Every structure is written in C-alpha cells, then in structure tokens.
Amino acid sequence: MRDADHLMRQAVADNVFPGGVLLVSKEREIIFFEAYGFANIFTKREIRKDTIFDLASLTKPLATTLAIMKLFQEFVLDIEQSVGSLIPQFRDTEKADIRVRDFLAHCSGLPDHRPYYGRLCKVSPDRRKGLLRKLLVAEPLICPTGEQVIYSDLGFMILEWLVE
Question: Rounded mean pLDDT of 107-111?
Fold first, then answer.
C-alpha cells in the first residue's frame, strides 16, 4: 500500500486533484484508509476520512459499477449473464441477450440519453420508477450490441435496476 499512498500524496502535491480519500478493503476487512489534501483549496479545509463527496454524474461509473462488482464478488451476479435472464421484463425484447458486461463497457447498443424526464415529471412520484422501467424496456437499440461504444445513461439505469 506504500506505492498507492505515495501516488496519492504525489498527485495532490502535483495538483492533479486537490484531495481525496483512499480506502482499500478485502473480504470486509479494511486494509488501508487515508485522507489526502483539501476539501476546499481556497479555505485550506483538509479532507478527512469522513468527508462527504458530491459524486454528481460519477455515480453511474463509480457507485453503480462498484455495486455490480460487489454482487459479482459475492457470487450473486455474473457479468456474463444476460439482462433477459435477470430481469423478466427484458426476456422477449431485442435487449434480452445483452450481458451485464456490455452495459458496463457501454457497448449495449442503447442510445446515450433520452429526455425521459419530460414524461416522468408529469406523473406522480410513486409512479415514476415504474414508468421509467417501461420506457427502458421499450427503448430500441440504435446499433447491434458490441458494435459501438456509446456512453449510455440508459444502460446504467438498467444496471441500477439489476442492483435493486
């Protein structure tokens, strides 16, 4: 862990980023946990181990991917499984054979974005998740799976559904 610690300290010193927290665990045991740099570079407020970060659009690649990989590690999910085998609503669609791996790699064939919010904001909050899922099931592919890399919010919405 000395190398990782050194890299984090050097990155902060080189202004690659203002600060961060590094936690490494294995089999539910924390191996390394350290805070580096500043939460606010103007006030010089240091980052602590319990600093809360706004992940914004990093939630998709960080939180969702980590949740998927945790399920993989615990043998709950295999990234080679198809969405049709995991979510019954996809079984009889053109998306049935798309693997978890394809969603993670952004090569599912789904578009990058759709303005679903326009329809979702018109229904009561308790119905939004159901409507969103119907829209995801109905969404057509824009290219064959594996043909193109398209950073797809929709693919990660489906992964979030899997995690639930």
Answer: 98
Domain ranges in the chain are 2-53, 83-163
| pLDDT (0 to 100) of residue 54 | 67
| E runs forming strands in the chain | 19-26, 29-40, 45-46
Q: For residue 135, how far is the Cα from the chain centroid? A: 20
Structure tokens at 97: 């054979």
**Average pLDDT of 116-126?**
93
**Angle between helix 125-138 and 153-163 (nearest 10):** 120
Question: What gap in Å lies between CA 41 and CA 74, rounded to an integer?
Answer: 39
Token pair, residue 67, equals 């949740």
Q: Cβ contacts of residue 39 below 8 Å, gap of 6+?
A: 18, 19, 45, 46, 47, 48, 51
Partners of 29 in the β-ladder = 26
- The conformation of residue 60, written as its DSSP 8-state character, comes to I
pLDDT at 38: 95
The pLDDT tens digits of the residues spanning 18-63 come to 999 999 998 889 999 999 999 999 999 999 999 987 666 777 778 8
Strand partners, 24: 32
**Rg (Cα) of the chain, in Å, rounded?**
19
